[in-house]
Amino acid sequence: MTHTEEHADAFRLEKGLVSVFTGHGKGKTSAAIGIAVRGAGWGARVFMLGMMKGGDYAGEHGEYFILKNLPNVTVRYVGDRSWLRASPSKSAYRAAAKEELAAAKNAMVSGDYDIVIIDEINQATAKGLVDVADVLDLINNRPEHVELILTGRDAAPEVVQAADLVSEILMIKHPFTEGIRARKGIDY
After folding, report:
1. Beta-ladder partners of 48
2. pLDDT tens by residue, 101-137
3. How far apart are the C-alpha atoms of 17 and 63, rounded to whole Å?
4. Which residues lie across from 13 on neighbouring strands?
5. Residue 28: which H helix or E strand, with range?
6. What distance in Å separates the CA atoms of residue 121 and residue 150, rounded to the nearest whole number?
7. Given this model, what pLDDT does residue 46 score?
C-alpha cells in the first residue's frame, strides 16, 4: 500500500480556507500546484480548473501531464490563448467561462474534493469573462472543509477582501525582459 492510498480515507480538513495568489510575478500557478501535490501526497482529493489554458495550450504545460496522472487529482483546462486577448463582448468566451466556473462550483460542493483550484480565475475576471459576483458566490458557498485556491494577476479587490490568505507575487526581475523565451520544463 502506498502512502497516498494509506491516507486517502483519513484526509479531511476541519476548516478549509480561501487563498488568492495574485500579482505580476511568476509563480502563482506554481504555488497552487505545490499545494495540490502536497495535498495529494496526504490523500487529499484535488480538483483543478485551468482557465484560459485549454485546447492545444494544455498540451504545452508540464504540470498538466503530471497532475492528470496523480491519484485523487482531477484536472480540467479550458479556453485558449485567444481568451487572454478577449473583450467582454466575446459572448462565446463568456458563456464557456461561466459554464466552467459552474463546473468548478459543482465540484467544490459535491463532497468529492478537499482542495479546489481555479487557475487564472482572477485574470478571467479582470478580462470581463467572469463576473466578480460569480467568484464571490463561489467563495460564499464553499463548504467548510474545502480549501479554495484562486490564482491569476489582477485579483478584484472584493475577492482579495473575501479571502483568508492573499499573496501578491511581484516581478522584480524576469528573463523575458532580456529576450529569454519561456523554457520547457521550467516555465511551462
Report:
1. 75, 117
2. 999 999 999 999 999 999 999 999 998 889 999 999 9
3. 23
4. none
5. helix 28-41
6. 6
7. 97
Question: Of 33, 76, 35, which Cα lies nearest the Cα of 52?
Answer: 76
Report whether 62 contacts 182 (CB < 8 A). no
Q: What are phi and psi of 144, to 5 degrees?
A: -55, -35
Given the C-alpha cell 478537499, which residue does it identify? 114
Show the cell assigned to 117. Answer: 483550484
| Dihedral sign of CA atoms 3, 7, 12, 14 in order | negative
The pTM of this model reads 0.87
Residue 82 cell numbers, joined: 485567444
* Mean pLDDT over the full length of the chain: 86
- Residue 150 CB partners (closer than 8 Å, separation 6+): 18, 19, 20, 21, 117, 118, 121, 122, 135, 159, 163
User: Cell 497516498 appears where?
Assistant: 4
- b/e 12-44 (16+ beta carbons within 10 angstroms → b): eeeebebbbbbbebbbbbebbbebbbebbeebb
pLDDT at 169: 95
